[in-house]
Design a protein that fits this description.
Chain lengths: 97, 390
């Protein structure tokens, strides 16, 4: 897993999204793929849109602040989610110096 | 007199919110308790009024909404959102393409509204790209778009064979299209003038907007009033929403806007839309304009426009010109303006260019001989009624 708490996450430019009620619709123009994010995924996505760059621990803190979830489960699910985004070329990552 | 609204229309007006407040939630729950909703009709009217995204977003937060109904709306909204994301990206590409080639232009209606006015890019669908260019750069624009695989619609290709200058005089827009997936197309309506009723009554050119860069948004509102209020007689609730979002939280130079509207006698047409913006959305309006909105005549006129909300679009599409002038003249209090509307409409009806099929031949009849085209259209059906020789 390439993620550590200090890994910085950024959205790639070649994508676009829209919030549809509780879900977020994403398009990856480069791959021509369509995605639907649930409420938590949409929250993470909107945080990344707003802040441009966030560390894994900052994202996790935001989720724990917004949703009723155990920290250990949050970390596990977040890593899985970010891993999926990375595999689908929707984010880029940068290790902290 | 205001028409009695069917409950489905009342409900569609109630769901027009961005953030659902507890008060509106309670109002909706009470409304649904007190009224029997024909969900099929509601669905059909939501599509007819192009406000499915508002209906879905609001009703998904209201308990006891039928789940299959919500699922249908969700599917449709996902399609709208996906279509919008693709179209916004394509427009941005076209914008760069035209700008890089030195083509001055603006986009108006759908893409403009979603990018600059609506709080969310899924709250309305995008149809065609409406792009306004200068008359002098039309053919260069067509060439640039053609080199980008956009094809000119078949209705316009004969003009290229006949005379390009004639097309500029006869028409005010051309359509171009490009396939992007399966049977889906990007469509561009490339305008070189925006007709206000017809060319003889008045037209707006790109220069009219670009010459006043400080009032470009007001110029967009003017174009919106022409398209939504004058040409399409405020027949969709989405048109009210468009007007609302183009005014909400915007710094509007009201004297400039009203003066421009007045120049084309569109002030009352605008006021009708503005009254709905206030009634449906609670839009704050300057006190000087508020006095105009309280006039009895305006309330009665709004009711007459509203009667079209339950008329199927296919019915409204029959003789749309007659409906336009009927409502436009109702908005005028000067006899001279009414006469101008009737006269320019009649001249435009008789003297407009057309293509007529005679046998296997397709003939172009220039606008100066437009009355011949009318005669042919009258005689042809009569000819079919004559007994044939054995």
């Amino acid at each position: 897993m390439p993620f550590t708490p200090t890994t910085q996450i950024q959205l790639v430019p070649n994508q676009s999204s829209s919030v549809l009620g509780q879900e977020t619709i994403l398009l990856n123009y480069e791959l021509g793929n369509y995605y639907e994010l649930n409420e938590v995924g949409g929250f993470i996505w909107s945080q990344l849109q707003e802040k441009k760059s966030l560390s894994v621990q900052e994202i996790q803190a935001g989720i724990l602040n917004e949703f009723d979830v155990e920290p250990a489960i949050c970390e596990q699910e977040l890593t899985l989610f970010l891993d999926n985004l990375l595999r689908e070329k929707l984010i880029t990552i940068e290790s902290a110096p | 007199m205001k028409p009695t609204r069917p409950p489905e229309i009342e409900l569609l007006l109630l769901v027009c919110v961005v953030d659902l407040s507890p008060e509106r939630t309670a109002q909706l729950i009470q409304f649904l308790d007190q009224h029997s909703i024909d969900w099929e009709r509601l669905h059909s009217l939501a599509n007819r009024h192009r406000i499915t995204p508002f209906l879905y977003r609001t009703l998904q937060q209201i308990p006891n909404t039928p789940s299959d109904f919500l699922e249908t709306l969700q599917r449709e909204c996902r399609a709208i959102v996906t279509d919008n994301l693709l179209k916004i990206r394509e427009y941005e590409r076209i914008n760069t393409l035209l700008t890089d080639q030195g083509i001055e232009h603006i986009v108006y209606k759908g893409v403009y509204l979603l990018k600059h006015c609506y709080p969310n890019n899924g709250l309305r669908g995008i149809g065609d790209f409406d792009i306004l260019v200068k008359r002098a750069t039309l053919y260069k624009s067509i060439q640039i778009l053609a080199s980008d695989n956009y094809q000119l619609g078949p209705a316009y290709t004969h003009y290229q064979r006949y005379n390009e200058q004639v097309m500029l005089d006869d028409l005010h827009e051309v359509s171009l299209f490009k396939s992007f997936f399966d049977t889906s197309y990007f469509d561009i309506d490339l305008h070189w003038e925006i007709e206000c009723l017809n060319k003889k009554y008045g037209s707006i050119h790109l220069e009219d907007i670009l010459d006043h860069p400080d009032f470009s948004h007001e110029g967009q509102i003017l174009l919106l009033v022409i398209h939504h209020g004058l040409i399409n007689i405020w027949q969709n609730i989405s048109y009210i929403n468009d007007l609302y979002f183009s005014l909400k939280d915007k710094t509007i130079n009201w004297p400039w806007l009203l003066q421009k509207l007045n120049q084309y006698q569109l002030e009352t047409v605008f006021m009708v839309g503005l009254l709905w913006c206030q009634q449906i959305w609670g839009l704050s309006i300057p006190t000087t304009i508020q006095e105009t909105l309280t006039a009895d005549h305006l309330s009665s006129l709004t009711g007459q426009y509203e009667e079209n909300w339950t008329v199927p679009s296919s019915v409204l599409a029959v003789n749309p010109g007659l409906k336009q002038i009927a409502f436009f003249t109702k908005c005028q209090n000067k006899l001279a303006t009414r006469l101008k509307i009737y006269t320019t409409y009649s001249i435009n009806f008789i003297f407009h260019a057309s293509m007529v099929n005679i046998g296997k031949r397709r003939l172009y009849i220039p606008k100066e001989l437009g009355f011949i085209a009318i005669l042919i259209r009258v005689i042809k059906p009569l000819h079919r009624l004559l007994p044939t020789r054995q």
